[in-house]
């Protein structure tokens, strides 16, 4: 199994010994040893994945990196967070997914209104299985635990990823004042309930909700 | 391999940095918060625009900037909030019966025991009183003492010293050619002909970059006699 480690906080080093990893297309910055890079169509999920991703707008340009040695990945100097999965599911925006172990399965899932509020579309990417994955964030991500007693509210623009058994509720506090320029700017939130971890970045994407 | 540090409602610090770019505040009551600077929270917290009638007394006491009113909300309730701003470095500062002026876009939140007043320098706000506030800077903040001249873009704020004045490089402006250069830009410029000059006693806060937060339109001064127009 490929071994992931961080080289600083913005470069991911993956030691590969004959196996493979899937990585964002063009994210390799250096490697030593022997590597081959092969573009995978449809996120490496075959014809079905190709069609699904095209339909859902969760397109993901992925390459398969195979060989022996160390391969370094980076993406526009964004911070990289390592996630180790033991059979659970990671939900992440395809644009934030940098690299996954070949043993992990990727797919797409419907997110509902939450996705729309983030300006990321109605679908998100899932990563499932056992192995390591690397996700990127604008600034070092904060990992927050959700327990049944302590639900968490997250600004849609700062949400990056989550793992575990979490229910998401789209919460809106819009009232009449939002319409006359007295909005709170925090009118839309995602409420996470259940048991799991949420990755939040210290920066907000532009969202429709942020304007209200 | 060690996993990432995981925070929950209890392990989030009550009033400290979570990492250099995120700050956690334990809320029990009210705080002023600039819109869009809250990224996540635990607990029951409401966010209300500062125009709400119920908040009149609080606003009258602690918020004196109609120009910035549209950018601020009052966070009310109990819980822990995580604040962040475009992956900039954030830090909290304590004022003890003091005053500090800061670039309006860089201020994330402040305790209502402080009063926010609009500075006469366009785009800046002054905090007066005793309490804690959270501000962002692009790169770590460093503190210097007057007399000093600073690059306008690197300035985050200043405390306890008189309002700065503009300083222009005399060599650059002198003579006929200097005049032409100053008015037309012909002849080239090093980009360092203009500084803010601080004199007197106090502290000046600088960031380690000249990249600014995007300017917020409401931070502009009103066009009125006696109010300086923002320098172009």
TrEMBL record, chain A:
It comes from the Bacteria. It holds the Pfam family AIM24. InterPro entries: AIM24, AIM24_sf, Trp_RNA-bd_attenuator-like_dom. PANTHER family: ALTERED INHERITANCE OF MITOCHONDRIA PROTEIN 24, MITOCHONDRIAL (PTHR38074:SF1). This is Uncharacterized protein (AIM24 family).
From TrEMBL, chain B:
It holds the Pfam family AIM24. It comes from the Bacteria. SUPFAM superfamilies: TRAP-like. InterPro entries: AIM24, AIM24_sf, Trp_RNA-bd_attenuator-like_dom. This is Uncharacterized protein (AIM24 family).
């Amino acid at each position: 199994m490929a071994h992931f480690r961080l080289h600083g906080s913005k470069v991911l080093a993956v030691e590969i010994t004959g196996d493979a990893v899937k990585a964002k297309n063009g994210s390799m910055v250096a490697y030593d040893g022997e590597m081959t890079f092969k573009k995978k169509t449809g996120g490496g999920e075959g014809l079905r994945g190709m069609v699904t991703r095209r339909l859902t707008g969760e397109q993901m340009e992925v390459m398969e990196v195979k060989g022996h040695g160390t391969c370094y990945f980076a993406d526009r100097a964004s911070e990289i967070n390592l996630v180790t999965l033991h059979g659970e599911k990671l939900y992440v925006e395809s644009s934030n997914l940098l690299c996954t172990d070949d043993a992990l399965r990727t797919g797409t899932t419907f997110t509902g209104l939450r996705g729309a509020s983030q300006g990321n579309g109605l679908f998100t990417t899932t990563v499932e299985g056992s192995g390591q994955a690397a996700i990127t964030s604008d600034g070092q991500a904060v990992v927050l635990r959700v327990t049944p007693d302590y639900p968490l509210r997250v600004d849609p623009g700062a949400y990056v990823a989550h793992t575990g058994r979490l229910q998401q509720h789209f919460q809106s506090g819009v009232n009449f004042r939002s319409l006359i320029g007295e909005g709170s700017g925090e009118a839309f939130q995602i409420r996470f309930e259940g048991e799991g971890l949420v990755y939040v970045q210290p920066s907000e994407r532009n969202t429709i909700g942020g304007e209200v | 391999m060690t996993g990432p540090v995981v925070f929950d409602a209890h392990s989030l610090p009550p009033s400290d940095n979570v990492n250099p770019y995120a700050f956690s505040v334990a809320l029990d009551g009210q705080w002023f918060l600039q819109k869009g600077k809250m990224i996540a929270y635990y607990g029951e917290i409401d966010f209300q625009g500062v125009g709400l009638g119920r908040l009149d007394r609080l606003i009258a006491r602690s918020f004196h900037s109609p120009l910035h009113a549209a950018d601020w909300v009052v966070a009310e309730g109990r819980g822990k909030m995580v604040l962040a701003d475009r992956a900039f470095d954030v830090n909290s500062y304590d004022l003890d019966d003091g005053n500090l002026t800061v670039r309006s876009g860089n201020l994330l939140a402040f305790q209502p025991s402080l009063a926010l007043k609009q500075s006469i320098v366009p785009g800046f706000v002054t905090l007066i009183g005793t309490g804690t506030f959270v501000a962002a800077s692009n790169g770590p903040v460093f503190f210097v003492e007057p007399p000093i001249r600073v690059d306008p873009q690197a300035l985050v704020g200043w405390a306890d010293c008189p309002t700065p004045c503009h300083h222009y490089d005399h060599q650059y402006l002198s003579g006929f050619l200097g005049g032409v250069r100053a008015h037309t830009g012909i002849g080239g410029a090093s980009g360092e002909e203009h500084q803010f000059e601080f004199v007197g006693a106090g502290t000046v806060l600088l960031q380690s970059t000249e990249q600014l937060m995007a300017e917020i339109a409401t931070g502009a001064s009103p066009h009125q006699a006696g109010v300086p127009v923002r320098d172009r």
